[in-house]
Amino acid sequence: MYKRLPDAAAAAPAVLLTIDGADFAARAGDTVAAALLAAGYDACRTTPVTGAPRGPFCLMGVCFDCLAVVDGLPNQQTCLIPVRAGMRIERQQGAAVFGPAAGSGQGPR
Amino acid sequence: MAREHDIAVIGGGLVGGAIAYGLARLGRRVCLYDEGDVAYRASRGNFGLVWVQGKGQGLAPYGGWTQRSVRRFAEFAALLREDTGIDVALEQPGGFHLCLSDAELAHRVDQLTRLVAQQGFERYAFEVLDRAALAQRLPGLGPQVAGATYCRLDGHLNPLRLLRALHAAFLERGGTYRASAKVEAIAREGGAFAVRTATGRAEAGQVVLTAGLGNATLAPQVGLTATVRPQRGMIVVLERVRRFLDYPLATLRQTDEGTVLIGDSQEEVGFDDTLATAVLATLASRAVQVFPFLRDARVNRTWAALRVMSPDGFPIYEQSASAPGAFVVTCHSGVTLAAAHALELAPRIAAGALGADLSPFSSERLHVQKAA
Fold it and tell me: pTM, whole model, 2 decimals?
């Protein structure tokens, strides 16, 4: 859906990271949200309440729709985080899981 | 000229909303005056407990009144859903009051034992759980928690949805809502009450003061007293996380949508509803003592709001002796008491008499001269 402008694609050096375990070459200066969009992911999470897909929208830290798991931390606002080499990005399924709910496989009621 | 409304309800928070809805259900023509977003609005800052445990020490009838509301809350929530389609997310699985040391637990048990043993108290059962028993009900419990008391009547709901449902249900039942309408003066004129706002004047046969902290200045205009003071409380809201907690605690709960609320700070700081980071830090630190894994959860929001406190902390329900037809209603448990306010108090106001069983809530109890 999204394509880099031809000039921009060549201008910045590549930053190697993984998205859901697969290698991806982002560009220096990308936010994690931009990298997700450039990699072809419209949706980076599903909502905790209804399970509907959501993706980066406002790209300025307001809408909280671009949440994903970054280096193991859930609910990160990916539009506010610059990419770094070796970063592990995972799309987030539903609510963040903490404590005794971890591994139970149960969604919120 | 015919009066447009039978009853004016002054104050559009949870208390006024519940009473206005209860009156509209009875077919009364009600006008609800709401000050607007400049108001202190305890109803938009509260924690959302529907709570019985521990209430009524020093005024036994308050324990029974609270239980009546809580026992009718499921019925009340169903009525609101029928009228509006809004689900207030009521859950009543029972609630825990946690203690962080053996001494604290012993003190708590002693308090509750004396509470339910009071003369005339409508007794309810509470359980005492030691650490091991509690850990089974609350997975992930921190090592510093010594135990808890549990009452199966306790629960919680979404207070913002309750406020919206009350307003929507009131309108559905034909009520008139005046927004941004701070009442500046009320006067008894002939057989009616004249209610004056910045933009106009209207008459009603009865008037109910439900203006929270605003009642203090309105009540004397119709021969009532409402000695209420603000008490600041702060709430910390964590990010939405998967359900880990099936019961509300007195100081921490997880909403139906996964958000975690931490609260119950109490400060006497007058009309100051700003935040103090030291208090927020204390709230956060206690929450982490209870559930250590919350250390990793992020804080999304914090706010402070002002409770509406009477001198002894109990509600004031009273009809004016000098201006019959004027009532004052104030309490700091607008969520818990909403069912009783709508289903039990409103019909009595409509009938023009509060009834002998509510006489303990008259402000007369506060006028007793202190011994020198």
Answer: 0.90
